[in-house]
Amino acid sequence: MNSNDDNLLQSPFGSRHLLRYPLPARAQQSLRAWDAADEYLLRWLHEQDLQACTPTLVLNDQFGALTCSLPCRPLWSQSDSWLAQHACQRNLQQLPDNGLEQPQLLDSLQWPTSPLQLVVIRLPKQLALLEHQLYCLRPLLAATTRVVAAGMVKHWPASAQQLFEQILGPSHTSLAWKKARLLHCTPQVSGSQGQGWPGQSPYPDHYQLPQPPLRLGNHANLFSRSGPDIGSRFFLQHLPRPDAGAEVIDLGCGNGILGLAMLQANPQLHMHFVDESHMAVASARDNLAHNLPAVTDAHWHVDDGLRSFADNSADLVVNNPPFHQQAVVGDHLARQMFRDAHRVLRPGGELWVVANRHLGYHLRLQTLFGNCTTVAGNSKFVILRAAKA
Asked: What does pTM read for this prediction?
């Protein structure tokens, strides 16, 4: 291994061999598992002469660059993304045994129970997630806790500093370095363990869907929390109607809107809700309990697509695929979802997809399934159906 290895992160804490997950497609092989924001954070943290016994929480580590590098213990690393957690776990397994206690990986609904001395944050794409995290942090902070956040300038949320100052305390940003920036916050703790701080997290929040009549709740990291995104709104008008007893998968379920609408029309479906976001699956579970409490045959999967599903085990997959992974835009996740659906569907089973017209998914589905028909379309979206031979 040499310094020119694209997968070798070199920081003041040492060298780490890190991979993204899923592994980049050939056209994206130059993508690394870290960026300049990670490097800037690690450089600054090393300058602080951290002690090994520094209880530390890392939030939103993308692929483990921070979690795998920091020597602080105990160390918790929290993420809403199954993919990010899996990448972090795999990269931790590649490290030599240094005798340190292993970091504890938490999902976005789990928090440490003991006070923290250091909080390291990668600014998330969803500003609502940052807001929720800052509120949840407050009981874990002391006046001496150091809070530092980082992000790339081009992805820096416009209101990030304002949120830190409103929720935690005075904040300032650093000069940019390699197009990355740091934010430093001094918690203004009033009372024991943050008691007396005003306000609380507004998440999950809710909206009412008139047709079908559903009250839908959304945890902080969900896309389009004030109402269904326009793709899902269009899909709701043209959902398939499988027979009772069919095995149906809502792949990339978000708050569960598509699967819930299908269950409302036919409660006898065997419905699986699948997403790589812990908050998405938690939202879908809560929404089923609130709207359709009599439905008990529902299953929940936080996973990378359909990797845990057996071949030829489903009759129908409905999918509103994402077109980005964190800050990277592309169709690699959608293509993996299509391949997973083809493997998991029984012969004669169908994949229904809603997507922007310009993405050209009909060509990929035609190649993969050998057929693809258009169910409905408008000026922006198209609903496609492909059947497994």
From this structure: 0.94
